[in-house]
Design brief:
The protein is an alpha+beta fold. It contains 9 helices and 8 strands.
Length: about 325
């Protein structure tokens, strides 16, 4: 049995695509939303400031007899001088409203009003995003082009011992690139449609519970964090899938109809699935992909690289 060189996806192009998606979501969605509530970066600055300045910036807030938020040494000293006492269990400074200077009480009222106003603006902005236009701004053509070119070179090296040198026409290349760019844009739009609805519902709940400035920031940061994870997933999935489908079509055209399933070394964060480990070293046909799901779950059949986040490799073989 002759084993040919495998054709695997390019990790660098996958990372480039993930960063491109992250940058798109950041510039088109999250920075505009954070800008509405006055945050230029994705974290609250920890610079020293007095109580009134901290209330204005949203670094701290007062509710039900307690100051909550982020406290530096300057704020701690000033709150202690007002007679506030540290509540270790709630991680807040306790002080009755009657003991707070009038000018500070006014600022507390204004801070509440500002938060309510910003909340309304956030909800309005969340209902106006055009997710189709946002997803269409993804510039992934050049990345898929580079990834496809590398896959094409790997296919030629793999089929070299057989004296076969397949070549794609520009029209075929462009068709593949457009297809996978469109797939990624569709993924982004679908996720954004769901996430923006969920984010709006979360902020509405916060409003009913008595919204706090820091809660708004946390809600946006959590959503942004999920979007970064999704960007990595989409980039890996679409890049792997494009390479896998291209590899299969080229091998079929060359008459190479079988491959050996080979798993890769996993990691604690990304372990190899047991159902994939069980396939390692076995021979399969392009006409009959193996079951890649665990017993008891809905069955899916896939070749290496086609299942969600799969990094397994197909080693073409000829008897």
């Amino acid at each position: 049995m002759l084993k040919l060189k495998p054709v695997d996806a390019d990790v660098q192009d996958e990372e480039r695509l993930a960063k491109e998606i992250e940058a798109l979501l950041e510039s088109e969605v999250y920075l505009p939303l954070l800008g509405i509530i006055g945050v230029k970066k994705r974290s609250i600055k920890n610079a020293k400031e007095d109580v009134i300045s901290a209330l204005r910036s949203g670094k701290i807030f007062y509710s039900r007899g307690k100051f909550r938020g982020k406290f530096d040494s300057t704020l701690t000293r000033e709150l202690r001088s007002l007679g506030a006492e540290w509540d270790r269990r709630q991680e807040a400074w306790s002080i009755p409203i009657s003991a707070i200077p009038v000018v500070m009480r006014v600022e507390i009222g204004l801070a509440v009003a500002r938060t309510e106003e910003k909340t309304k603006k956030l909800l309005d902005a969340l209902s106006k995003f055009d997710t189709a236009k946002i997803s269409e701004k993804l510039n992934a053509d050049s990345i898929f082009d580079a990834s496809l070119s590398k896959a094409e070179k790997k296919v030629k090296r793999s089929l070299g011992p057989l004296g076969i040198t397949p070549t794609l026409t520009e029209e075929q290349k462009n068709l593949i690139i457009r297809e996978y760019t469109a797939n990624t844009q569709k993924d982004i739009k679908g996720w954004l449609d769901e996430e923006l609805v969920a984010l709006r519902a979360k902020i509405t709940r916060l409003t009913l519970q008595g919204v706090r400035y820091e809660n708004l920031i946390d809600a946006l940061q959590q959503s942004y964090g999920v979007s970064r994870e999704k960007a990595t997933f989409w980039a890996r999935q679409e890049n792997n899938l494009m390479t896998a489908k291209f590899r299969e079509s080229q091998m079929r055209d060359a008459g190479v109809m079988q491959y050996e399933w080979r798993t890769v070394a996993g990691s604690p964060n990304h372990p190899v699935r047991d159902s994939h480990k069980a396939l390692d070293g076995k021979i399969f046909s392009w006409d009959d992909p193996p079951i890649t799901t665990m017993p008891g779950k809905p069955q899916r059949r896939n070749h290496p690289g086609e299942d969600y986040n799969c990094r397994c490799i197909a080693v073409p073989v000829i008897e």
